[in-house]
Specification:
alpha/beta, four-stranded antiparallel beta sheet, disordered C terminus
């Protein structure tokens, strides 16, 4: 069944509170998807972000981003007053997220809501208690980690006193007692996030829209996961990572890329039937209909760099868990090949990577911006297979308008000839590019929202390898018009990507 969808991060939604969140604008976008004939909404990771604001370096692999809790919903619940929300400064640029303003003020607003929550004794309700009990595996550790981080003025976990850093039982017991109220505050935020997320997901389901979530392959070194579950990772006698993640030197970087994430102890994970990973995936399928795993290559092989090195030059390629991991995943979660799991398989194609993708039968990605350097590119449309997802670009690419403007004359001429496009107007050429993705045999087609809006470099989400000024772009209010939805729907109908109505809808 052919379908299509739109890549649109939560933080890029318009809202009056400085960052996209689970407010009415999220529901309006679901309506836009329905009107435009789209069956999928793909987002980026929704975990709590830290230094650098990257959703791929979350403080927790299980928690939700506090910034996504919508003040409007808290007002509806009677936990906030409108003037309290309006009185907080969250930035004044409709098209950029001001993370500094959010960091300084968003928690103050959420704390007002928490105080009312406790005054009304809502923490004693069955809903809240059931949530805390159901998510106990990760919630208690995350809340304590976050409370300790605040207590240590935001310092990285590795700089904490040893008793806290290494989770000495007597120290942790004392910390829980002293920081209980602060921990309850963070549990409240996660409860509200869960309620708001569940409501949005349920609404999307009723509109026949499925949500594709995104989970990072690695976790942050400064996060609750390494701190609470060191047994999952390769650590030294001091409780710190012995090796860290990155990429080897190549034509783009003579010293490679040093990411710094802790690396999994796959042998220990296998002995435990990959329990932490299975729990993580089960949590993901509670939140999303489908999951894209970033850096899928890491399951086939990964690059391990000695901790403490300043470059990635002395790392080693190591075999990953391969199909042994996915056999356990499929046993626990069932068949995920029907686009319930999507592999981010971009980059170097090795024999091991290709074999794992084929053996697991998980669909990979075809990005058209990578296609027009060679007639034999694996990304070019005539080499696509049905069991994959085609994109014009991803969050790591520049919007297609900027790509068209910035590629060389030879590549641009090849692109025009391949698309059979005589358009010299770059905006029109972007729509020809979108049409090429739609006509691909790929069963699923995902287009970033920037390309539908024909945005340029100003709308780029992320510059890989650059630490600052990413993850900020937002859509201005009112930019998603009915005319745009109608144009997308016509394209979707022409290329047979309108989703089938759900069986229950057909019976009515």
């Amino acid at each position: 069944m052919r379908e299509s969808g739109i890549l649109y991060p939560i933080f890029s939604l318009p809202s009056r509170y400085g960052i996209g969140c689970l407010s009415k604008e999220a529901y309006e976008f679901v309506d836009f998807l329905k009107k435009s004939g789209q069956g999928y909404w793909q987002i980026l990771p929704i975990g709590p972000t830290g230094y650098g604001d990257s959703p791929y370096q979350p403080f927790s692999a299980f928690a939700g981003n506090p910034y996504f809790v919508a003040p409007d919903k808290l007002i509806e619940e009677g936990l906030l007053m409108q003037d309290e929300a309006d009185g907080m400064y969250f930035g004044n640029d409709e098209e950029r997220v001001d993370y500094g303003a959010l960091y300084n003020n968003r928690y103050d607003l959420l704390r007002i809501a928490f105080d009312r929550f406790m005054e009304k004794e809502l923490d004693k309700t069955a809903g809240y208690k059931d949530f805390c009990k159901k998510e106990k595996y990760w919630l208690e550790d995350y809340c304590l980690f976050t409370a300790l981080k605040k207590n240590f003025d935001g310092e990285a976990r590795e700089k904490w006193e040893d008793g806290y850093r290494l989770r000495k039982p007597d120290v942790i017991k004392k910390a829980v007692k002293e920081l209980r109220e602060e921990m309850d505050f963070y549990a409240f935020i996660q409860y509200e996030f869960q309620r708001q997320w569940d409501a949005l997901k349920e609404y999307a389901g009723r509109q026949n829209v499925k949500i594709i979530g995104d989970i990072p392959f690695y976790v942050s070194a400064d996060g609750a996961d390494l701190w609470a579950h060191p047994e999952v990772f390769l650590i030294n006698e001091d409780g710190e990572p012995s090796v860290v993640a990155g990429c080897p030197p190549d034509a783009y970087s003579v010293t490679g890329q040093l990411w710094g994430n802790p690396i999994y102890d796959w042998k220990a994970n296998a002995k435990d039937d990959y329990d932490w990973w299975i729990r993580r995936l089960k949590r993901s399928y509670e939140l999303f209909d489908s999951v894209r795993i970033d850096h899928f290559h890491g399951f086939a092989e990964y690059y391990a760099i000695p901790a403490g090195d300043e470059t990635a030059e002395k790392g080693n390629l190591v075999k990953g868990p391969g199909m042994d991991f996915f056999k356990v995943v499929f046993r626990e979660l069932g068949d995920l090949s029907d686009f319930r799991l999507i592999a981010e398989d971009l980059g170097t194609l090795t024999e091991d990577n290709v074999k794992l993708l084929n053996d697991s039968n998980i669909p990979g990605m075809k990005v058209l911006q990578y296609a027009f350097t060679s007639w034999d590119s694996c990304y070019i449309t005539h080499r696509h297979e049905r069991h994959c997802v085609v994109y014009t670009g991803t969050h790591d690419n520049t919007p297609t308008r900027a790509w068209v403007e910035e590629i060389g004359d030879g590549d641009r001429d090849f692109t025009r000839r391949y698309l059979n496009s005589m358009n010299t107007d770059y905006g029109a050429l972007v729509w020809d590019f979108i049409r090429e993705a739609y006509r691909s045999v790929a069963d699923l087609c995902i287009i970033p929202i920037q390309d539908y809006l024909v945005k340029g470099r100003e709308a780029r989400i992320n510059y890989p390898g650059v630490a600052a000024d990413n993850w900020q772009w937002r859509v201005k209010p009112g930019f998603l018009s009915d005319d745009l939805a109608d144009s997308i729907r016509r394209l979707t109908e022409i290329y047979g990507r309108i989703p089938r109505e759900k069986e229950d809808d057909c019976k009515q």
